[in-house]
Amino acid sequence: MPLVRIDLRKGKSAAYKKAIGDAIYRAMRETFVVPDEDRFMVVTEHDDDGFFYSKTYLNIERTDELALIQLTVTNSRNVDQKKALCSRKAAHYPAHDVSPVMTVITCLIWVTFNRVAKEADGPMADTNFDVLIIGSGPGGYVTAIRAAQLGFKTAIVERDYLGGICLNWGCIPTKALLRSAEIFHYLQHAKDYGLKADNVAYDPKAVVQRSRAVSKRLNDGVGFLMKKNKVSIIWGEASIDAPGKVSVNASNSEAPKGALGAGQYQAKHIIIATGARPRVLPGIEPDKELVWTYFEAMVPDRVPKTLLVIGSGAIGIEFASFYRTLGSEVTVVEVLPQILPVEDHEIQTFARKSFEKQGIKIHTNAKVTKLGKKADSVTTTIEEGGKTQSITVERVISAVGVVGNIENLGLEKLGVKTDRGIVVVDQFNKTNIPGIYAIGDVSGPPMLAHKAEHEGVVCIEAIKGLNPHPMNKLMIPGCTYCSPQVASVGLTEQAAKEKKMDVRVGRFPFVGNGKAIALGEDQGLVKVIFDKKTGQLLGAHMVGAEVTELIQGYVVAMNLETTEEELMHTIFPHPTLSEMMKEAVLDAYGRVLNM
User: Which of 96, 340, 354, 415 is most buried by its number of CB atoms within 10 A?
Assistant: First the structure.
């Protein structure tokens, strides 16, 4: 009795073009089910003399595309094994011995393409790629798209959720939360705009649900972009066995439809884009109940009445701003001399005064030395200026930075050079091992999504041989979406002076701008730093309403190597907040008009 092995291949069936007697060039016995006008037929190839042997029409109408079903005939007398292998929902599989040298297999197929693909083991995995990217955050998925555009056969590996931390637990959902808080703030101050809004309140669960829905929409969008650009998604946790070889182990999270699974994969170029996770300090380990990271802070079941935030970088200050707007009593502890440590000193000072005016308590040059947990509260010991004090709060948020995910990738075994938790790369993100690259958080600060995206594009264009310009980190803007917002690019005034540069500094306050006054947002400052000798724009720093949308104007100017002369001759529309950008430039040269 012959043994029949069924191989389900995903894709539209193509018509079989040969006729009886045509030559064939495969030394195999193969039988195919293929479409023929309005019916399906079974065609069988001879394996001895190289000629087409037979075809048999199925007695069913062609109502839908079927998967191509290949039945390979081999010699076997194991009837039970034959039946087991033929149980792929084929309703009928009689075998007829029609000659000593060949068996014609006739199969009646009752399932359509989608059902066949679903009930099979899945599409046959293609394991060879030109480019394989580990991590689907902004850096990873943008790199994948650009690689596909450049003609590379591309795959991306993800273990948790498409879009990475940024889209699911970082940049995007926090902005949704902050938007809800902003609207709540405006409703509370409706009378300032001549409006009435009585009994204003918020629903914490609904606020969180909106944030999660926004993330889900973006997550689905990444899946769409991968499909659109023909990027294969591999679901699981990857490790690099050797240059060009990657093992993927199964992930506990649910894979998106159509994703490839665990297995061995090959790629000429492997790009590490695994992002980062919250940094944990000894003695302040998060427990997800009383001590939170940004994960728990984004999905509270209720808003705590009292809150301590450890760390005053972008993450810490954004959560401090969010919870304070919703009514929490917020205390911020920062080990450095000033909050928002990477920002210009003048901007830091302005922002701190604004936060303190809102009721946020800020301790700088201070650190939390002890946490005492109770049933629903935490007593913290704060050391500041040689003195200690205790503060009891309902919840603590640990926001002391992030650390790159470089563990369990096989880097140490391969000899990939790392330094203090980041992968060492050159200007085009190559590691010291040929064929292995690293982008985004794992390649070092600033740990920002837009930095990762641009790094990925530069990296893949360099691989293609397009000779892209290396990224200039001084031209990477930074934004903090607190209230008031903070944004900057380039050198701070202090940094420029430390470099012994002769500078001109210009400033313009929001209170001098008509649009800011009309918006009811007249508290803020725009500051610019120029090289006095060349007129080069060295840096720009802002605090106030919507400055995260304004900063890109200065970023473009710096990239185009725009001088003060060109900025002063640029016409800015009136009335807009952007007029302050020009006024700050004019002020640097003693020509300010509206102040």
Answer: 340
